[in-house]
Amino acid sequence: MAAVTSSKWKILSRLTPYLREHRARISLGFVSCLLTNAFLVANPWIIKYAINGLEESVTREKLTYYAEVLVTFTLAQGFFRFWMRHLLIGVSRDIEYSLRNDLFRHLEKLPVSFFQKNKTGDLMSRATNDLSNVRMLVGPGIMYTANTILTAAFTVVLMLKIDWRLTLVALLPLPLVSYSVRHFGRHIHDLTEESQARLADLSARVQESMSGIRVVKAFVQEDFEIAEFDRMNRTLVDKNRELIRITSVFYPTMQFLIGVAVVIVLWYGGRQVMRSEITLGDFVAFTVYLGMLAWPMIAFGWVVNLLERGRASMERLNYIYGAPPGIEDAPDVVSSIDVEGEVEFRNLNFAYNGVPTLRNISLRIPKGKTVAIVGATGSGKSTLVQLIARLYNAPPRSVFIDGMPIEKIPLHKLRRAIGFIPQDTFLFGETIRENIAFGVESASDAEIRRAAEISNILGDVEGFPNRFQTIVGERGITLSGGQKQRTAISRAVIRDPKILILDDALSSVDTYTEEQILHQLKEVMRDRTSIIISHRVSTVKEADEIVVLEHGAIVERGTHDELLRRDGYYAELHRRQLLEEEIAVSD
Hints:
This protein has 21 helices and 10 strands. By secondary structure, the protein is of the alpha/beta class. The chain has 3 domains: 307 residues, ABC transporter type 1, transmembrane domain (ABC transporter transmembrane region fold, Up-down Bundle); 167 residues, 3-Layer(aba) Sandwich (Rossmann fold), CATH 3.40.50.300; 72 residues, P-loop containing nucleotide triphosphate hydrolases (Rossmann fold, 3-Layer(aba) Sandwich). The strands form 2 sheets. It has a 6-stranded mixed β-sheet, sandwiched between helices. Strands 2-1-4-5 form a 4-stranded antiparallel β-sheet, covered by helices on one side. Helix 7 packs antiparallel against helix 10, helix 10 packs antiparallel against helix 11 and helix 20 crosses helix 21. The radius of gyration is 35 Å and the shape is elongated. The termini are far apart.
């Protein structure tokens, strides 16, 4: 049983460095707790002497003396109680602050695959509700645990000093208290874990519904979403009600056992006073001590609730903390390297989730050249360029930058040298200016304006009432698909990258706008390595080399004219798009 308990609480070992960091304040907090309880338990002892002394004679001097002592001890108790709470609760807030920062820092280091497997709402729930439960554990949980233990220990010692037989009689219900704590504590932990999981599911549902509000409205699914939310919300409420039912039985059970002890003491202790085995002062002090012992027993139930909630939440947080970063700098990185831009794949084979995605890719892109990649959906185009930025780890010595294996280049230098425009355009819910300058905080207004001009978004921005200070809303909801893509292009261009990657970045703009953007990008791409992924021939035809992927392998490569003469996939794609344009013109 001890081994099981040890392994259960081993979950909290991650908190040890945080507690060690604040050990001075925690130690002072415990000293304050000790002194608080020392002055607290002294009061009944003073009352004992007062009653015994006043039985002999009642004088003003005696009353004044005992009153002054009681007031002094009460003030001292209040003083140290203030510092106990100030120190221990304050430490819990600081630990919560550090935990939240470390959790977010760790989340930022986790690979893309982690976020593909876990819902955003669930992660948000762990980072908010679960973190708050852990804070309650390290603050009130630790403080009240120490407080109840010290109060109980001091009280029992003094009760034994008054009369050991009466103390043993008063503590008869303790085995039942121990059983109640173990029985109810296990149920509280399990229900807390389930409740937090339901809350995470609900948070994820809300987040997805709000993010996809356009789709929800377009498919007239508002009533379905409301009904689904109601169902999940009802499940959460039902689970919390189960938890409430358990705790509503737990606390009255503790109070009942305390009441039993009080009745026993009144009966047995009263008989002792009548037989003159103890004094009236002893009996009154003992009764006060028993009343003081009632609070630790009740508080113990609350503390068990806090500790079990905190332990369940820490277990959920450990899932995130335990996830390995996946993509990190190797010990032998070459810190002195400066990326120039040559990209090479050597016999690259890559599998995603065990499924082969790229097969025997060998491709060299000289510095300053533009290579276009075309192919059917699912042919591996996006995966190939994501390996350049190490969003996924390629097999060792299969991807090279400037002749050096990519894993030997520091991550921050590698990614700083890349301007990446993914096909799934994401904008932050800030201003257009902040979105364009993302990652280049020192960008001037002139640089931002120039980047917007290159992506052909400047005209649209000038038409907005607040221009570059226009708030785009969550995920850029106030902008059209084409405007979001062009803003993303500006964001990549302003970095002045050595390697520019456009992953189907012009799919949401019309052919005229595409032509304008490509014309502006020609100047930008002149001295840098550029990789363009597109389904449009008009986008890729000016590239120095065009690579055709099929089922993860290179099946064609060459210039636009060379591929047309070969009459393969690319030529068929070209003919199909010419036919679509003719049909569109005739309509």
